[in-house]
Amino acid sequence: MYTVMKENNSINRILRKICLAACPVAVLLCVLTGCFDYPVDEDGLLITEREQCYVSNFELLGTDFQTVRTKNPVIDTLACTVNVEVFYGTDLTNLWPQFTLVTDAKLEPKITGWTDFSDLNNPRKYTVISGNRKVRKEYTVYLTVQQP
Predict the structure, then answer these.
(1) How many other C-beta atoms are found inside a 10 Å radius of the C-beta of residue 142?
(2) Residue 34: what pLDDT?
(3) What pLDDT is recorded for position 16?
(4) pLDDT at residue 48, as a whole number
(5) Dihedral angle of Cα 114, 120, 121, 122, to the nearest 10 degrees
(6) How is the beta sheet containing 74-76 ordered, strand by strand?
(7) Cα angle at 56 between 99 and 121, to 5 degrees?
(8) What is the pLDDT of residues 30-80, one digit of tens each?
(9) What are phi and psi of 37, to 5 degrees?
(10) Residue 117: which of 83, 66, 147, 70 has the closest Cα?
(11) Exposed e or buried b for every residue in 10-41, given b needs 16+ CB within 10 A?
(12) Mean pLDDT estimate for the chain
């Protein structure tokens, strides 16, 4: 039994030395090759070669984190509009918009909290930026309130 434990300790020491030598090299290679292939933008997101730039879905949550939409939004990727109807009585001053974008795209301004959509005559505007950061499309979010 003692010999088996002694052999296991020797094997463990050898494996530990291999890991200590190989792991930093592997991590360094991953970091270096990843950074040269795809640089990172100011938000820490990868800049890729994707030129696509569109909204694929839109959600609007109330303060209880439940949807306030009466039905699916109508997203027009050519006109760059999102039309959404909310339930009658919805507090339009405290809504949390959630955009689903094409892969690698990002949104400006960033959504960091509750948003006021109460001025229906001046709809909110958001810019979708492509993965390669070269294409920008401004989307307008039009809100309507369900009739009572």
Answers:
(1) 15
(2) 53
(3) 73
(4) 95
(5) 20
(6) 74-76, 81-86, 136-145, 124-129, 106-108
(7) 60
(8) 555 554 567 999 989 999 999 999 999 999 999 999 999 999 999 999 999
(9) -70, -50
(10) 83
(11) eeeeeeeeeeeeeeeeeeeeeeeeeeeeeeee
(12) 87
For 119-135, write each residue's pLDDT tens digit. 999 999 999 999 999 99
- Amino acid identity of residue 59, one-letter, is E
What is the residue-wise DSSP string for 17-82?
Answer: HHHHHHHHHHHHHHHHHHHHHS-B-TTSPBP-S-----EEEEEEE-TTSSB-BSS--EEETTTTEE
Are 57 and 102 spatial neighbours (Cβ–Cβ below 8 Å)?
Answer: no
The pLDDT-based confidence of 13 (bands split at 50, 70, 90) is confident
In 3D space, the residue among 30, 115, 94, 122 whose CA is nearest the CA of residue 107 turns out to be 115
Q: How far apart are CA 129 and CA 10, in angstroms?
A: 55
Cβ proximity of 45 and 105 under 8 Å: no
Q: How far apart are CA 87 and CA 65, in angstroms?
A: 14
